[in-house]
TrEMBL record:
One GO CC term, this protein: cytoplasm
PANTHER family: NADB-LER2, SHORT-CHAIN DEHYDROGENASE/REDUCTASE
GO MF annotations in UniProt: oxidoreductase activity
Name the UniProt record assigns to this protein: C-factor
Similarity section: Belongs to the short-chain dehydrogenases/reductases (SDR) family.
Keyword Oxidoreductase recorded: yes
Alphabetized Pfam families for the sequence: adh_short
Entry-linked SUPFAM superfamilies: NAD(P)-binding Rossmann-fold domains (SSF51735)
Gene3D superfamilies per UniProt: NAD(P)-binding Rossmann-like Domain
Record keywords, A-Z: NADP, Oxidoreductase
InterPro entries: Fungal_SecMetab_SDRs, NAD(P)-bd_dom_sf, SDR_fam
Length: 235
C-alpha cells in the first residue's frame, strides 16, 4: 500500500506495539500515532523518531482510564490537523496471572476485562469521528487463547475470557457498522514481556506478517479471526 495510512496504536512503548510502530515508520507514507501510558518514560519509542521515514506522533493513553482515552482525542486531533485515522490498532493488554477457574481472583479478572475489553471499546467510541474520516479499520489484538475451538485448556483463565469477549465485541462492531472493517488477530507466541523468552516468534517476524495482512484486508474480511500469517482461527 503506497497511499497514506494513519494508524493509532495503543501500548506502543514496548513489545509488539513498539515493533509495529518501528516497522510502520520505515514507510514514508505512514503516519503513526503511537500511544502509551507514559510517553516521557518511553525511551525506545521516542528514539524511533530519529530514523523514521514516516511521521510519528506520540500521545498519552492509559486504556484502563475512560478520562485518559477521552482526553487523548483533542491531543491526537491537534496532531493530525484535518486528517482522520485509518486504522485503530487496539494492542495494549495485560495478562497478570496464569490462573484457572478455581483460583481466579475477582480483582485480577475485573482489571483484565477493563484493560483488554473495556479499553478497546472506549477507544472505538472516542475515536469514531476520526475513524469515520478515514478507512474505517479496527484491529483488535486477540490471542489463540481466546479460541474455544483450539482447546488450549484451563490456563490463563482471566486473560482468555477477556480476549474471547474482545472477539465478541469485534463481531458486534461489524454488525453495527458494516462499512467498517474490524478484525481480531492472534500475533502468535511472540518473545515479549508477555510472551516470555521461550516464545516461538521474534517480534520482527510476527509484525512483518501482521502488516502484510492488515494492508491487504478488504471489507469482506470484516469479523474474521486471523493468525498473524492470515489463516483463520476457529472461534
Ligand atoms: N506476546 C505474545 O505471545 C502474545 C500472544 C497472543 C496475543 N498477544 C497480544 O498482543 C498484544 C501485545 O502484547 P505484547 O506481547 O507486546 O505484550 P507486552 O510486551 O506485555 O506489552 C504490553 C503493552 O500493553 C501496554 N499496556 C498495559 N496496560 C496498559 C494500559 N492500562 N494502558 C496503556 N497501555 C497498557 C504496556 O504498557 P506499559 O509498559 O505501560 O505496561 C505495553 O506497552 C496484547 O494484546 C497481547 O494480548 C501477545
Amino acid at each position: 500500500m503506497t497511499e497514506t495510512n494513519t494508524w493509532l496504536i495503543t501500548g506502543a512503548n514496548r513489545g509488539i506495539g513498539l515493533e509495529l510502530t518501528r516497522q510502520l515508520l520505515t514507510v514514508p507514507t505512514n503516519i503513526v500515532v503511537a500511544t502509551c501510558r507514559n510517553p516521557n518514560g518511553a525511551t525506545e519509542l521516542r528514539a524511533l523518531k530519529d530514523a523514521a521515514q514516516g511521521t510519528l506522533h506520540i500521545a498519552p493513553i492509559d486504556v484502563s482510564s475512560e478520562g485518559s482515552i477521552k482526553n487523548s482525542v483533542s491531543i491526537v486531533q491537534e496532531a493530525l490537523g484535518e486528517g482522520g485515522i485509518d486504522i485503530l490498532y487496539n494492542n495494549a493488554a495485560i495478562n497478570e496471572e496464569d490462573d484457572v477457574p478455581s483460583n481466579a481472583k475477582p480483582e485480577v479478572f475485573l482489571r483484565t476485562i477493563q484493560v483488554n475489553v473495556v479499553g478497546p471499546m472506549l477507544l472505538y467510541q472516542a475515536y469514531l469521528p476520526l475513524l469515520e474520516k478515514g478507512k474505517k479499520m479496527v484491529v483488535n489484538m486477540s490471542s489463540g487463547l481466546a479460541s474455544i475451538g483450539l482447546n488450549h485448556g484451563g490456563k490463563c483463565t482471566s486473560y482468555s475470557i477477556s480476549k474471547t469477549a474482545l472477539n465478541m465485541l469485534t463481531y458486534k462492531m461489524t454488525k453495527e457498522r458494516p462499512n467498517f472493517t474490524a478484525i481480531v488477530l492472534d500475533p502468535g507466541w511472540v518473545k515479549t514481556e508477555m510472551g516470555g523468552e521461550g516464545a516461538q516468534l521474534e517480534p520482527e517476524y510476527s509484525v512483518s506478517h501482521i502488516i502484510k495482512l492488515i494492508t491487504s484486508l478488504k471489507n469482506e474480511d470484516s469479523g474474521k479471526f486471523f493468525t498473524y500469517a492470515g489463516n483463520i482461527i476457529p472461534w
